[in-house]
Structure formats: C-alpha cells, structure tokens
C-alpha cells in the first residue's frame, strides 16, 4: 500500500505558551497502572521516517505530579524551546521512547499502518523500561493525539512488535494541548526526528541538495525543486507525490 501525503497544521512557534496541558483530561487512568501519551511527527514529510513518541507516567503518581514548566503543544514552541525541554521531559516521564517507521515501510504499508507500527515500537520500549522497576504492571492506558486510533488497528498484525501489555487506547483531539503526557511525547518525538534529519543532511553529500537540515524532509519549495532536479534519494517516500 502506498502512503498519502498530509499532516498536521504548520508550526506557529512561540516561547511563552499561554496555556499548559493538564496531566490527564481523559480519565484514562481508571483501573490502569500506567498512562502513556502518544503523538506523531513526520506524517506529511516527503523524506525520512515517521515517528511516534511515547511518554509514560505511573497512574499512582497523578496526585502529586506537576506539569513541567514551559510544556505546551510542540507546534507552539520554537526549536530552541523544544531542545531545552527535551531532557527535562525525559526525566519527568517514568519512561519514554520514540518509535519509527522508515520511508520504505511507509511506501509498503501506507501511512496509517506505519504510524501504528511506529507507536507499538515505542510502546514496547517504554514497557520494557518500566518492567525494570519493582512495580508490577497489569493494565496500560494510552492517550493518542487526534481522532483516529491507528494503534489498536496495528496490534496483532504480522508487522507488529511484541508488546508485553497491549494498551487500551483513548483518542483525544488536540491532545498535545490538553494532556501533558501527549504534549511530552510530541516534543520528544519532534526533537528526535529533527535531529535525525539534520544528521542525515550532513552524512552524505548526495543529500545536500534537499536541505533537510532546514526543512526536516517536509515539502518546501526548495526541497521539491531539488527532487525535480536531482530525482528522489533513497530516503524519499517514492509512492508519494514528490514534485
């Protein structure tokens, strides 16, 4: 199956967000030991992987956890602010991870299934981190940004990784504005992917014309012009409309 272009709204950065998300606006913690927020990055890019961040907290900690200072919807934060939040957010989480699906997997599976597999890869990493503690896990609740639950659809498919505790998923539109775990997942995922695209841009002179250090693989005018002039690279999603 081929991927289809599209994505979330463009960034409107600001260093002083007017509103912070709450810890959990969905009551997902009812009967759960762990709450995991999920958010994606790279859905609409022309090159590079799609990634899904997962940020987990113990449900028992809800009563005394505070929202990290400055946390907001990642699209409302500048790159400098996201970078500054990255390590504090990872420390705030009981566990965090970023799962990826490559451009080749997107071309093979389509974007929705690729997102689901990326999310499950992140969830599997998070659960294995949590299992190192002495606390038993019986139930995991997931909060996924947006209206569509692509995580549950990907569970138990041939491509899915082994997830020790399948999560019960709740979707939340604009979850990165309302739920701290989702907002944390979004920032962690975006910083991780932006760093990767900048590293790729510097890793091979064949990638230089595409300016991934600036556009992060998204379809800027200069990026599309470079594809038209040089052709797609091995990092491009060739099933998409690239020019």
Automatic annotation (TrEMBL):
Pfam families: RNase_HII. Its main location: cytoplasm. Residues 33-243 form the RNase H type-2 domain. It catalyses: Endonucleolytic cleavage to 5'-phosphomonoester. One of its GO terms (cellular component) is ribonuclease H2 complex. It is found in: Cytoplasm. Keywords: Cytoplasm, Endonuclease, Hydrolase, Manganese, Metal-binding, Nuclease. Its cofactor is Mn(2+); Mg(2+). It comes from the Bacteria. Residues 1-25 are annotated as: Disordered. PROSITE patterns: RNASE_H_2 (PS51975). Its EC number is 3.1.26.4. Residues 9-19 have a biased composition (Polar residues). InterPro entries: RNase_HII, RNase_HII/HIII, RNase_HII/HIII_dom, RNaseH-like_sf, RNaseH_sf. GO terms for biological process: DNA replication, removal of RNA primer; mismatch repair. GO terms for molecular function: metal ion binding; RNA binding; RNA-DNA hybrid ribonuclease activity. PANTHER family: RIBONUCLEASE H2 SUBUNIT A, RIBONUCLEASE HII. Belongs to the RNase HII family. Endonuclease that specifically degrades the RNA of RNA-DNA hybrids. This is Ribonuclease. It comes from Bifidobacterium jacchi.
